[in-house]
Amino acid sequence: MKKNKIIQDIEKLKKEKNAIILAHSYQIPEVQEVADIVGDSLALSKAATEVDNEVIVFCGVNFMAESAKILSPNKKVLLPIKSAGCPMADMVSAKRLRQYKKNNPDTTIVCYVNSSASVKAESDICCTSSNALKVVESIDSDKILFVPDRNLGNYVKNNVKNKQVELWPGFCPTHNNISLREALKIKEEHPEAEILVHPECSEKVIELADFVGSTSQIIKYANESNSKEFLIGTEMGVLHILRKQNPNKEFDLLYHNLLCPDMKKTRLEDVLNALMYEQHEINVEEDIRQRALIALNKMLEIS
Ligand code: CIZ
Ligand code: SF4
Q: ipTM of this model?
């Protein structure tokens, strides 16, 4: 089917089904263009609670659609690609976390939103890459376990005072695998560029950065900066928004392979099929949903 025809059919079905399309900023440009809202996972889940559409097509990965369902239990949440997951979220399970809690009953569990609903349900409070520091600082207890991202956890650990932060050994392969050697070479080739990176990157890469932040913080920083050139250390999907919003600025990647394979699985045809066949519906068991919601709401109260 031709691209224009697919887009027309998507628009038509969207109206018929009273649906909204949300796309993460790591999705391919065509999918971002067809979406009603583009953003990071939490911003999208929060947006989903504020609209009155009955159906939410969440173009992203499983944990993001689950978060939308946790916050909007009465809406039908669809994930166009059933197998779109997150290898980092899969590096911790509720079972292993329960075992840890049994052995460490005094530890407060802080979980990054990039985690499954059942891991959130075992956690005391959630955080995002924008508010992780604020969330950890707000905790009374000084013993904290940060799951699952050891890089974001380490970034928090290095910037928080008087807290003992244990790190779970998870990581995002996309951000963690940036080669320092290649990044240094690219930096040398672009001496004027500002380096903006996501805290899911390794400590060595974070040390190269002029700015460390979530995708929305990176976009805001680039929009407001007077620099003309930037090197980006996060998934390449954000280049689409950065270039669109800043046609006179130049954006390159800090590493050639900043690509999340799961985020790139969703194509326009999949968005159309999701609407047409109302697939693949994401459900979260009510007991897990309620406990995960407590951890999410605690974070929302703080930030
Ligand atoms: O790395 C990811 O998947 C991110 C940054 C997700 C998010 O929270 O938007
Ligand atoms: Fe998971 Fe990393 Fe992909 Fe985000 S970019 S979905 S953290 S693997």
A: 0.95
